[in-house]
Design brief:
The structure is a single chain. By secondary structure, the protein is of the alpha/beta class. It has 2 domains: 18-52, no CATH class; 55-288, Rossmann fold (3-Layer(aba) Sandwich). It is built from 10 helices and 9 strands. It has helices spanning 19-22, 30-37, 57-68, 99-117, 139-144, 151-160, 172-181, 197-206, 249-262, 275-278; strands at residues 71-77, 90-93, 125-129, 185-193, 216-219, 233-235, 243-245, 266-272, 286-288. Helix 4 (99-117) runs parallel beside helix 7 (172-181). The longest helix has 19 residues, at 99-117. The chain is globular, with a radius of gyration of 19 Å. It starts with 18 loop residues before the first helix and ends in a 9-residue tail after the last strand. Residues 1-37 have low confidence and may be disordered. Bound molecules: magnesium ion (MG). Magnesium ion is lined by residues 130, 132-134, 273-274. Magnesium ion (MG) binds at residues 130, 132-134, 273-274.
């Protein structure tokens, strides 16, 4: 159980039709990238020379809402807002029969079949899930925040640990159960900080997942509880004499998978909504979960 202070979520581009390219273009040809992600919309260039190279942000937001099947709850008030207000702020949620739900259900179903039929039965085989938008859906927060991440308001949603606020990603609870039935152990690896570990376990369980808290890894920005991340602690040039967590998300996650595998576990499949969840090895296969809402390098 590695639960600790995550550094603030990395800078992210707010609306991410474009996102697929930014972090990958350095190493992956765009065609391969498109095939891997299922993403066929070309990303805009990092340094456009014309507005015509950029998607219109309002049209992108409208498309995202259409993809998820935007629905406003009439009963669930946004965490951190005033429930006594004359007009309370209700959360938005996705349509369980919408395009997003159908797409992720199909990915989960295919993964479940592969895990059940194509992997030799071995001891210590495992699957690994990211949390946000891989196992718990955060559409409610993205709409609440208008796609602009704020650690304080996000923490209000996370600490609510309420599956009405962050419900299971469609198909993923069933995938977990199927994997468990076929002998896989289940790990969770998130960039959420240690302070949110308990709430994360509670939300996952309430959403229907089986969770062994010892198999949930949150980010210890001090690396004290996660000694395999010690090399991530580096001098902070902005604060002489102090240190900071200097590893990228790809490094943090791949080093943690390396640690898990060093314990004799074989991570057969790694599920994430960000390419930074999936790069860096230490998994036999990777599954990209759709997320057009944000991009984390
Ligand atoms: Mg995620």
């Amino acid at each position: 159980m590695k639960l600790s202070l995550r550094s603030p979520r990395p800078t992210r581009t707010a609306v991410a039709i474009a996102s697929v390219a930014t972090g990958m273009a350095l190493t992956v040809p765009s065609l391969a990238l498109a095939a891997h992600s299922g993403q066929s919309v070309p990303a805009p260039p990092a340094n456009p020379t014309s507005a015509s190279q950029i998607q219109n942000i309002d049209q992108v937001k409208t498309a995202i809402k259409g993809y998820y099947g935007d629905t406003v709850s009439s009963t669930v008030i946004a965490p951190g807002t005033d429930p006594q207000a004359a007009n309370p702020t209700y959360i938005h949620t996705f349509d369980p029969d919408g395009a997003y739900a159908h797409e992720v259900e199909a990915i989960a179903a295919k993964a479940g079949k592969t895990l059940a039929t194509h992997h030799k039965r071995t001891a210590d085989k495992a699957i690994l899930f990211d949390v946000d938008d891989t196992t718990l859906n955060t559409y409610s927060y993205e709409i609440f925040s208008n796609f602009v991440y704020n650690p304080a308001t996000n923490a209000n949603f996370v600490m609510a640990a309420d599956p009405q606020v962050f419900p299971a990603v469609p198909g993923m609870v069933g995938l977990e159960k199927k994997a468990e039935a076929h002998g896989y152990d289940v790990y969770f690896l998130t960039g959420r900080p240690l302070a949110q570990a308990g709430a994360t376990v509670a939300n996952l369980r309430a959403a229907g997942y089986d969770v062994n808290p010892e198999h949930l890894f949150t980010k210890d920005a001090t690396a004290k509880s996660e000694p395999w991340l010690a090399s991530c602690i580096v001098p902070d040039p902005a604060n002489p004499g102090q240190t900071k967590f200097g590893c990228s998300t790809i490094q943090y996650k791949s080093m943690t998978r390396e640690h898990i595998e060093s314990l004799g576990v074989d991570i057969v499949a790694n599920f994430g909504d960000q390419f930074s969840d999936l790069k860096g090895g230490f998994a036999d296969s990777t599954y990209k979960i759709p997320n057009p809402m944000y991009y984390l390098p």
